[in-house]
Amino acid sequence: MMFTDTHCHIHESGFYETDREDVYNRAVAAGVRMICIGTNEEFSRQATAFVASHDNAWATVGVHPHDVKDGWSDIARILAEKPEKLVGIGEIGLDYFYDNSPRDVQIHALEEQLQLAIDYGLPVSFHVRSAFDDFWPIFSNFYGLRGVLHSFTDNQANLEKGLSEGLYIGVNGISTFTKDESQRRLFSTIPLEKMLLETDAPFLTPTPHRGKVNEPAFVRNVAEYHAAQRGVELEHLARVTSTNASQLFSI
Question: Which fold would CATH assign to domain 3-249?
Answer without folding.
Answer: TIM Barrel (3.20.20)
